[in-house]
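Two entries, shown back to back:
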Amino acid sequence: MTHQRYRKFNTRETYPDSDLNNDLCNLVKAKGDILFVRGQVGIVLETGESVGVGDPKIQTNQAMQNISDLLQEADSKLEHVCRIQVYITDRAYRDPVYDAMGKWFKGVFPCATGLIVQGLWRPEWVVEIEATAVIPS
């Protein structure tokens, strides 16, 4: 297979309150060492526990920790992130989210797109962050 997939899961286990049956993963390492990180939210990857319910700063820090951990598993680091997409559920969350995220990306300068969305998968989630990175040669 051309791509390597990290932390594979099926939505039956991840989202037991739905009837979905999809095979997904949290990170794909594409041929040529490009990394695509699935949107990360305020959950602990190992347990699926939501953290910081209603608190955009806590959820952002958890999402960034998840991104950092996933990148390390694929032999990369936050400083190799090229692009991020940030989804928030309320314009009022913009400053706390970008403040928290900015501490993780200090000196990195990724391209960023920010969107305000009506909602995320679970109502307690208020921010989701996707990332595209590379593995340095």
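entry 2 starts here
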Amino acid sequence: MRNFALDWKNEVNFNQVTYEDFVTLFDDIKNVMFLEKLDGMLGMLIYNKKDIFFQTTTGREIRDLPVLSEYKSMLSNLDVNEAMIAGELVGQKNGVIFTFPMTQSVVKTWYAEKSKDLIHHYPYDLYSLNGKKPGFKEGFNFLARSSKALSHIRIPAALNGDMTTFRMFFLNTEKKQGTDGVVARNIKGRNYKIKFFNTVDLVIIGGGEKTMKAWSKNQIPYLITAFIDKDGNFRETSKVGTGFTFPEREMFFKYITKNEISVRDGEILVKPTLVIEVKFFRSFQPNGRVYSFNNGKYEFIHNDKTITFSNPSFMRLRPDKRANKIDVRMEQLPTWRY
């Protein structure tokens, strides 16, 4: 089945900036719509008269949840024949949104009875309605009106305003558990995620080095990471060696050694499968190694521009993302230019 969640993500094409960068880059933001960004997993509601489920960017289908029953009742009462609604799947209980690791655990086990009632959906974009794509504000207002009395469908806090009201909105959002920033829609034709700190999603292509002390203790000293560019090639970026707990170092050691496909200067390369989220302070655009990956092996193409980071630190695995040129694209950073 076509991955509509990935299509939506590609079309909206969020650029990520920090609060400091945002207020520096943009002084005129009147009438821009801001939404709180929930720290969950993207779920695209797919609805028609015969079927209803959530689709994730990995292509997984999630079914048989109370929140889906609410959507089915809401949309059928509105005489909607077909709809696709992008939003954030989160774990929530008694009005309190879970942290991302807890949300991840609940959504991954959606089929368990103890998980079903905990899963909520925060819709923020009506991607399609009866075969047509409404404007963003029109669609968001439709969702806000239609879901007022429902318990598992929750509209994110939203604001239209200038820089002064944005500052207050951002500070209030930062205090809430389960949020990780603010989304700004349609600033000079672009969309932004304004994060509490800089993060980026990268694919793991290896780890090492075998001669380092950590390796002798069955712990990974660092991970080798990469972006995937618009041609589908892997542009190597900074090695990530901090931010891990000891159990995580052991887990990645097992992953790297089990999935070894080749060795490069004492470093083990692995098939590009796992995606991680990395925190950093600043980014740079030096030249770096560019590889293709075909038939189970990396082939060096040339040195070309890439993005590297100061003080990159591991945050978490992202099992909801895949090693593709959308989830780990270079354009996650708005300053990137080919």
